[in-house]
């Protein structure tokens, strides 16, 4: 038996080896620590003047950096030392104020030719490279107030339909308070509300005016509204994270009214903060006449005027939006194509049917946070986040015909239209959220974890290499070469697939190192048995690989099944372990069986040798 591979097999092995080294090599280029700056609004321009101001603030603080770069939408400053990141962020934020988002980032240094081939370094999890950690607080009081506003309109409508006369109805201290002319009307109103609006409970208080009706949401209804608000916001945040394409994110509830968002391995932390942290919604309102309604400024006043007055009553909100896509109109201007649900379509049609010729305004509502500067008792500058609401009109157009489920809005910049469509597509938030804590899981902690992980892989690899050399001598060299190539292929596939490496993933690599030589142990032991039975050297090699293959295949398939189950039912860290283990199993099958046999064939195959170094 010559033990020779045909030419195509040898070429295949060489191609796989080349693939491994090419796509694993981006990991040799560590990213630069950087600070990224962008505007709170996607329409803000980050130009050379902003860059000059940022560089001036860093120079005054004595922070060493590389030349900054800007593309008009964001600015990136590369730092010379990762320990300067947090200090640089504080300096830039204090200099630029709350109109800008300042975030920590890692700027890639991968050569252009590798990027052109699709080569990128592995994404590292939050425990290795750090990442963005948000703690958001949901304004549950706002959710209850929104429900009460809706119930207030329902109460008025029900009373008018039953011709129950009242003087006034308004919201006061999370209650609906109504005034009537006589006690008979109060009794009729109570009976009607108990029958049709069961979530509202009439309140009786000592000394209460008998002509006053006080309605309050029941405790069960309040808890249900708060719980639904948290759940809807969780769903919306998860959709936004999916739109960002973040690997292995964590979005979970914490306590009664808080949500934790962790985004490991993000490449654009400023963009993530803008999308995750922004609470935006739309309200469609008809333009008011006279002094009725509320006055709002235009988001972009060009050609529109400084402000306009809109009715307080809302036609529809962003909650009625089922789909939103950014595109361009026939004149090449950005627009957002909106599709409504059945209820929203009916409400829009009903409102516009009798108001053709009137103007319909699109009110863009953002719940934002600004930084207020103050000096503490030690004389140090303190930046305190203060939430606020910003409302502006983005479109005010004349209703030409009755509108339905599908229509479009204009008046936005291209980036704003993309952001707005993403936020609406991800789902409306049931209540505003504010960032109460934001931090980067630190570069130093990640570096320590990486160092310990690399050390564990190196120690495990060294022990395995030593064992194979001592026990199998020359054939141990073949196994060690294949084992090293297995690690290269594992890193290459994880980089190419965009898999995220975490501490459990490193544990999977260590386990793969130990398991990868199992196949070679079986093969080499079988070759020894064949030699002991009196078979020829070439025949023993052939029989060792052929007869051990079934056992190797069975063992690896069962492990792969377990890894698949871990991936399907596990959480983020467990999934990271399962992904690393699965890829390691597949690559070790190739290197342990195909590659080592190729090496054996190259050195021993077809030769008349007397002794085998095994």
From TrEMBL:
GO biological process: one example: protein targeting
Q: Name one GO cellular component term.
A: plasma membrane
Q: Which residue intervals define the domain Protein translocase subunit SecDF P1 in the entry?
A: 230-287
Keywords, alphabetical: Cell membrane, Membrane, Protein transport, Translocation, Transmembrane, Transmembrane helix, Transport
Asked whether the UniProt record includes Translocase among its keywords, one would answer: no
Membrane topology term: Multi-pass membrane protein
Q: Where in the cell is it found?
A: Cell membrane
Q: Which residues form the SecDF P1 head subdomain domain?
A: 304-431
InterPro entries from the UniProt entry: Acrflvin-R, SecD, SecD-TM, SecD/SecF_arch_bac, SecD/SecF_CS, SecD_1st, SecD_SecF_C, SecD_SecF_C_bact
Per the UniProt record, one Pfam family is SecD_1st
Residue ranges annotated for the SecD export protein N-terminal TM domain, each copy included: 3-104
Transmembrane ranges, per UniProt, are 450-470, 477-499, 505-527, 548-570, 576-600
Q: Which residues, by range, are in coiled-coil regions?
A: none
An example Gene Ontology molecular-function term: protein-transporting ATPase activity
- Cite the Gene3D superfamilies for this sequence: 3.30.1360.200, 3.30.70.3400, Multidrug efflux transporter AcrB transmembrane domain
User: Which stretches make up the Protein export membrane protein SecD/SecF C-terminal domain?
Assistant: 435-601
- PANTHER family, sorted: PROTEIN TRANSLOCASE SUBUNIT SECD, PROTEIN-EXPORT MEMBRANE PROTEIN SEC
Q: State the similarity comment.
A: Belongs to the SecD/SecF family. SecD subfamily.
Quaternary structure per UniProt?
Forms a complex with SecF. Part of the essential Sec protein translocation apparatus which comprises SecA, SecYEG and auxiliary proteins SecDF-YajC and YidC.
Known role? Part of the Sec protein translocase complex. Interacts with the SecYEG preprotein conducting channel. SecDF uses the proton motive force (PMF) to complete protein translocation after the ATP-dependent function of SecA.
Q: What is this protein called?
A: Protein translocase subunit SecD
UniProt source species = gamma proteobacterium HTCC2207
């Amino acid at each position: 038996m010559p033990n020779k591979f045909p030419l195509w097999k040898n070429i295949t092995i060489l191609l796989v080896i080349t693939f491994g080294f090419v796509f694993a090599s981006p990991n040799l280029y560590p990213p630069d620590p950087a600070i990224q700056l962008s505007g709170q609004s996607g329409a803000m321009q980050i130009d050379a003047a902003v860059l000059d101001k940022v560089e001036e603030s860093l120079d005054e603080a004595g922070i060493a950096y590389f030349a900054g770069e800007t593309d008009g939408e964001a600015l990136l400053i590369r730092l010379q030392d990762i320990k300067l990141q947090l200090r640089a962020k504080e300096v830039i934020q204090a200099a630029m104020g709350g109109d800008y988002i300042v975030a920590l980032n890692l700027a890639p240094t991968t050569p252009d030719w590798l990027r052109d081939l699709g080569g990128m370094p592995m994404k590292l999890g939050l425990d290795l490279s750090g990442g963005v950690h948000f703690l958001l607080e949901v304004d549950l009081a706002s959710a209850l107030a929104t429900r009460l506003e809706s119930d207030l309109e329902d109460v008025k409508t029900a009373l008018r339909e039953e011709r129950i006369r009242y003087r006034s109805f308004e919201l006061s201290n999370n209650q609906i308070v109504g005034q009537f002319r006589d006690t008979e009307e109060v009794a009729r109103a109570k009976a009607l509300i108990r029958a049709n609006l069961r979530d509202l409970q009439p309140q009786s208080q000592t000394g209460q005016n008998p002509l006053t009706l006080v309605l309050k949401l029941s405790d069960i209804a309040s808890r249900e509204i708060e719980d639904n608000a948290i759940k809807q916001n969780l769903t919306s945040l998860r959709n936004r994270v999916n739109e960002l394409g973040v690997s292995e994110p964590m979005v979970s509830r914490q306590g009664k009214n808080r949500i934790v968002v962790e985004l490991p391995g993000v490449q654009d932390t400023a963009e993530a903060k803008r999308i995750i942290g922004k609470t935006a919604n739309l309200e469609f309102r008809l333009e008011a006449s006279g002094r009725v309604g509320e006055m709002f400024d235009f988001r972009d006043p060009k050609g529109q005027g400084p402000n306009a007055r809109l009715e307080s009553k809302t036609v529809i909100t962003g909650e009625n939006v089922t789909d939103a896509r950014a595109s361009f109109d026939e004149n090449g201007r950005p627009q957002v194509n909106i599709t409504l649900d059945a209820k929203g379509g009916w409400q829009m049609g009903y409102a516009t049917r009798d108001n053709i010729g009137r103007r319909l305004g699109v009110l863009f509502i953002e719940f934002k946070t600004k930084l207020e500067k103050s000096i503490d008792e030690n004389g140090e500058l303190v930046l305190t986040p203060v939430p606020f609401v910003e409302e502006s009109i983005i479109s005010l157009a004349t209703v030409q015909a009755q509108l339905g489920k599908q229509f479009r809005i204009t008046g936005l910049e291209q980036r704003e239209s993309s952001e707005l469509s993403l936020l609406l597509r991800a789902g409306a938030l049931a209540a505003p959220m504010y960032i109460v804590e934001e931090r980067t899981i630190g570069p130093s902690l990640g570096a320590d974890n990486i160092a310990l992980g690399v050390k564990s892989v190196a120690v495990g690899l060294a022990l395995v290499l030593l064992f194979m050399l001592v026990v199998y001598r020359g054939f141990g060299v073949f196994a060690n070469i294949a084992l090293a190539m297995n690690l290269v292929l594992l890193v290459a596939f994880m980089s190419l697939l965009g898999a995220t490496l975490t501490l459990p993933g490193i544990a999977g690599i260590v386990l793969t190192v130990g398991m990868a030589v199992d196949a070679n142990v079986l093969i080499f032991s079988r070759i020894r048995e064949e030699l002991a039975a009196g078979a020829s050297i070439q025949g023993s090699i052939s029989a060792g690989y052929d007869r051990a293959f079934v056992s190797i295949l069975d063992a690896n398939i069962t492990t792969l099944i377990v890894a698949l189950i871990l991936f399907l039912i596990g959480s983020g860290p467990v999934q990271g372990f399962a992904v690393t283990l699965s890829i390691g199993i597949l690559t070790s099958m190739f290197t342990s069986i195909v590659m080592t046999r190729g090496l054996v064939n190259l050195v021993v195959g077809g030769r008349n040798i007397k002794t085998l170094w095994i």
